Amino acid sequence: MTEVDYYELLECERTADDATIKSSYRKLAMKFHPDRNAGCKDSEAKFKAISEAYDCLKDPQKRAAYDRFGHAAFKNGGAGGGRGAGFGDASAFSDIFEDIFGEFMGGQRGGGGGRSSPRRGADLRYDMEITLEDAFHGREEQITVDVSAACDTCEGSGATPGTSVKRCTTCGGHGKVRAQQGFFVVERTCPTCHGAGEMIADPCTACRGEGRVDKTKTLTVNVPPGVDEGTRIRLAGEGEAGLRGAPAGDLYIFLHVQRHSIFTREGTTLFATAPISFTTAALGGTIDIPGPDGELYPVKIAPGTQSGREVRQRGAGMPVLQGRGRGDLVIRVDVETPTRLTARQRELLEAFRETETGEECPQTSGFFQKVKTAFGA
């Protein structure tokens, strides 16, 4: 039987480096793979041949022996051990498969893949209710949370003090095991250590080998000025402890601002409705509005102000979160009609009505003029 040169089979020069040989084999293996050439005996034979060639040349020792002795190196107990990489073994193809999907399958070769990352603790959520004044000034709040924290007895290792954690013998400490099924390498979590890569012969009695226990913790939360509904504050490392010394998760504080009796808020702008007397609306004046900082802000009312008019007070709103300056305070005027009049007040109003000409309230007179015109009165 004629033995074809391995380099010729892989279409490579004898001086080709490992990367070139691998790249060439991958291209040829995909081309002649039996799944792509169902029932073609020539493709099956070609696939066997290039797999055998790559199985030899990818191994530095086998390649050195082949370069020196040729095919004779693998006959009669030669340097190659007499085993080719035939269709049934497909070790070369699985190596290429591993190269293509290595990141998905775990990254490292041999011994069952890369070791799983430590299982980080879960993030936790805490909902905190604050007042608008708290949101304006900021505050420091003490909260109490129930979390899984690192075990003090074993310092999070999960092993009884004085004992050690041993490498899992099933996966060699990688946390994953691999099994070859035909041309494919299947990777799964190690059934012995459940992905930890370690085994505890003598578990800590305080945490039952988990490295964490349930605790109640008191934490300080600093609420900065300017926060709004839904603002999230992150406390790094204050979430659930990781399994057996793995990093802890984070604790997220979600802020909820209580409804205020006077103000509503849109961003840094505050809105309020202020009732004023009809005499103030007619004659003008000044009203004092308390801001969220406790200061009184004088708001000027122009003569003839109508109900619904808005007056803006610059810089009297909410502070900018993690910035400078403040928003505005917007006052919506609501003119109130008096309902309780003294005899003297009624007398004065009657006298005022007798002097009305219609020009005092142009909107009113204009409306009734339209009514008369519409109905031909």
Strand order of the largest sheet: 10-11-15-14
What CATH architecture of the largest domain do you see?
Ribbon
Helix content: 25-40%
Kindly report how far apart the N and C termini lie. 122 Å
Q: Give a count of the beta strands, DSSP E runs of length 2 or more.
A: 15
Total domains, how many?
4
Largest sheet descriptor? 4 strands, mixed
Strand residue percentage: 15-25%
What is the overall pLDDT average? Answer: 81
Taken from the alpha-carbon principal axes, the silhouette is elongated
Can you offer a commentary on this structure?
Helix content is 26%, strand content 25%. With 377 residues, the chain is an alpha+beta fold. It has 4 domains: 6-100, Helix Hairpins (Orthogonal Bundle), CATH 1.10.287; 124-257, Chaperone, DNAj Protein, Chain A (Ribbon); 264-339, Urease metallochaperone UreE, N-terminal domain (HSP40/DNAj peptide-binding domain), CATH 2.60.260.20; 345-374, no CATH class. A hairpin with a 2-residue loop joins strand 10 (264-266) and strand 11. The longest helix has 17 residues, at 41-57. It is elongated.
SSE blueprint and pairings:
Elements: H1 6-9, H2 18-32, H3 41-57, H4 60-69, H5 91-100, H6 102-105, E1 124-130, H7 132-137, E2 139-150, E3 166-167, E4 176-181, E5 184-189, E6 198-199, E7 212-223, E8 232-235, E9 251-257, E10 264-266, E11 269-277, H8 278-283, E12 285-290, E13 296-301, E14 310-313, E15 329-336, H9 343-354, H10 362-374
Parallel strand pairs: 1-9, 11-15
Antiparallel strand pairs: 2-7, 3-6, 4-5, 8-9, 10-11, 12-13, 14-15
Helix pairs in contact: 2-3
